[in-house]
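Re: How this chain folds, sequence and tokenised backbone to follow

Filed under: protein folding, tokenised backbone structure, sequence and structure records.

Contents: The amino acid chain and a row of whole-number tokens, matched residue for residue.

Body of memo: The sequence and its backbone structure tokens, given next.
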Amino acid sequence: MTTHVVLVPGFWLGPWAWDEVAGPLRAAGLVPHAVDLPGLSPQSTPESRAAVTREDHLRAVQDVVTGLDGPVVLVGHSGGGALVGEVLDRVHAGVAHVVYVDSGPLVDGARLTPPGPGVGTEIPLPAWDELAAQGSSVDGIDDAGLARFRELAQPQPAAVATTPVQVADPARLDIPATAVCTSISARDLRAVASHDAPFHTELLDVRTLDWVDLPTGHWPMLSRPADLAGVLVDVARSVAPAA
């Protein structure tokens, strides 16, 4: 039976962000599906992004997952991890394992970005030094990679970030998960992750949780794609049904 790997990007990213991860997954016999989130394609406009809601992003991920036949490894990077956690509240069947890449599921009512007068209808990609100051460094990405990142990134639809997460079904926490720790070590994350600020995460509530350290910046699919793919292959092999 085919094992699928559904790849959900974080802020500003389209399916292109997973290009160098998808190849090794295919070579390992897996089928990757990089999710194209509404408003993040090069064809998007300020008007189209302003109309995108958090529900649109949740539906995009949910539609991919429910359309697959076979076990699914559901992967969320950064803000995509919060989407994955919320999708699990709606969809359990078929999802064999969840991978949070420098991310985690958020508690009910949490927001990725607080609403306020400084938040418009979209959130542009900040300068690299601003990202680093926010804890999202681009360490490990070479100059060509940074240029491609800047060229292909799209402003993030703000409503996706400012709308609170809604989760209620405790069964979401029964699905085994792996936390891939890149910009903070597993040891440090275990010490500080909580329902309270600044993380607002329920990561430590997951019943079965593995930890993997992959030291680099916040975007390992761009800085260490082969190593990230190796982690995902290992996870997929652990959930694949016996022949």
Residues 4-239 form a domain with the Rossmann fold fold (CATH 3.40.50.1820).
